[in-house]
Amino acid sequence: MAKKFQFRYQMYKHLQANQAGIYAECRQAAEEVGITGEWKGNVGLTGAVSGCHGLLGRKVEDAMNDVARKVLPSAVLDERLRDVVKAYYGDEYDAVLVNTCEAGLNTAFDVLCMPPTLGRGEPYRARYLAPYERHTHHQAAYGRPFPPKYKEVNAERGEAAGEYGVQGKRAFNLDTVYVRPVGAEYPCHGIKNNPIIHLSNVDGGKTVDLFDTIAMRHIDTLAGLVCVGYDTPGYGYGDQDAEGTPVLQKGLGDLALKYDIPFIVDNAWGVPFIGTDIRKIGCDVIIYSMDKASGAPTCGLIIGKEEPMVLMRRALGVHGARYGTLSSHGKAAYVGFDPGKEALAGAIAAMQILKETPEIALQATQDLYRICLEEFELLPASLKPGWNICMSKNSLAVELNYFDTWKHNEAGIPVFSIEDMYAGSHVLQNAMSQMGMVPTIAYDANIFVSNGIGNLDEEGRLMEKPTRMSIRAMFKAIEIISRYAGLLD
Questions:
Q1: Is residue 84's pLDDT more than 70?
Q2: Is 269 helix (H, G, I), strand (E, B) or coil?
């Protein structure tokens, strides 16, 4: 079956033409590793994808059920949430819950970066700086892209109405300046051939210097900075200081102080208390998707410094009534982002677990990392060089990056773009689904694996059997795809 290809696109064309055969072999491999019967459709490689959330622990479920049939003002729960956050980060920080992480981003950019609409004269424009990194269609899509060559970057990643789903969330008179991190690469790969984002060699210090230079270039319109809050090389944050804080994140915090502008961090796949510390990176607000890794129901958490959080909480209608109260839960510009009292109760319970017993989640992640390393060793020897496997404390996940299998212009394990993911032509993710698993994020040769779908008990501890089956099946799929790509006989 081995076949050599002169050009990359020929390999991806061959994979496209042979998808039926690949998926048939993957289904057979899944049966061989034990994903049959009741396991099929009930195990997965993450509980952090928006289309299939992780299962709730017993304590979180009980907390939600407890308030469901009680008369309890949401303002009471808002204050309990604030108490949990302030007790950990300090009284100079505050918090609020919204219905999704994206709702938190929307509020942050509109409130902290968008120019005012009132006042005489023509409205001015403002610009915020964002690294050209993964997930730019979230944190970097709230302004019109600048320079113009980036205007198509987000175009095919939305599924809602309005310019491929991106136009609708752009804030009024706001632009996004894309900044390429120093050391980043953007080669084209995939069946839906597009630039993929390779960030493992990003130099944090030099990138901060570049941001400083570009900030001065746009000083007359400079309104903010943004990045993701992750902590792994595959996301561009492997360059860290002695305490493990990414140099790039901390440096952007320093620049925000220098230019007196807000610094917003999108930490969707992150956890409060255990992961990226807002106090160390100096951002104004950090936003979480609490159902991804924190064990909460679907909701978004915003933690921030008190001054910007007054603006955020007022916009969400939870800061206080106009006639003078400490807190309220009523009408405001973004009241549509209200999470509801059940989500509030569930999020508080999940946060208390993370704050009081972090060792449970950390041990489950350590166990997952161990199993990933053990199952990786079963790959054919020729497929092993070029992998970087590490654990993410921020995301309670394991990152498996294989882009360096393409070193020295030699063909490596096939890389699929995010456009492949949205177009349904991501062969690896499709193969995982065909095997009866909930797949995980795996584009740009960067696989993020975490717990949550069928592999944790009610207390959040890892169960060996379903975890090992899922990881083994994933590597089997990679092996099958690699054989069709001509890398194995």
A1: yes
A2: coil
Q: Are 93 and 198 in a shared domain? A: yes
Q: Whats the size of the chain, residue-wise? A: 489
Q: Quick one: 158 and 73 in the same domain?
A: yes
Distance CA 157, CA 199 (A): 20
Q: Is 95 helix (H, G, I), strand (E, B) or coil?
A: strand
- The region of weakest confidence among 166-180, 334-348, 453-467 is 166-180
pTM of the predicted model as reported, rounded to 2 decimal places? 0.95
- Please state, in angstroms and rounded to a whole number, the distance separating the CA atoms of residues 52 and 43: 11
CATH number of the domain where residue 214 is located: 3.40.640.10
pLDDT in tens, 291-317: 999 999 999 999 999 999 999 999 999
Residue in this structure with the two tokens 């009680």, named with its chain if needed: 70
Integer Cα distance of 435 and 29 in angstroms: 8
Q: Is the peptide bond before 131 cis (omega within 30 degrees of 0)?
A: no
Residues 325 and 473 in one domain: no
Q: Specify if 2 maps to a domain.
A: no
Q: Where are the beta strands (DSSP E) in 19-157?
A: 43-44, 48-49, 52-53, 93-98, 126-131, 144-146
